[in-house]
């Protein structure tokens, strides 16, 4: 039962996060992180903490518009408050500077932590499988 509750909570948090990516909502994306959350995007500096996350996501959304769907590949609970999640996302990105639309395919790895009863992203990194 606890495992199902954990999975449901994590799925909810990540659904909100990916919705934020598609809406280019900095506030919603950053809101899915813990206060000391870390974002490690491919080819860009690591962002740590709410202020740096806000800047990083603001810069990402100024550069691109995402239209992606995600699939959870696995959730591994370490205990009742920490879990690893592996996902895959695919769709398109619109590059604002050029107007070019390109395919977007990523593998993502999340460390999730329970924060005030809600599952939040504590660490997140991704890469492209090609």
UniProtKB/TrEMBL annotation:
Origin: domain of life: Bacteria
Gene3D superfamilies on file: 3.10.450.50
InterPro entries: NTF2-like_dom_sf (IPR032710)
SUPFAM superfamilies: NTF2-like (SSF54427)
Name of the protein in its database record: Nuclear transport factor 2 family protein
Annotated source species: Chitinophaga hostae
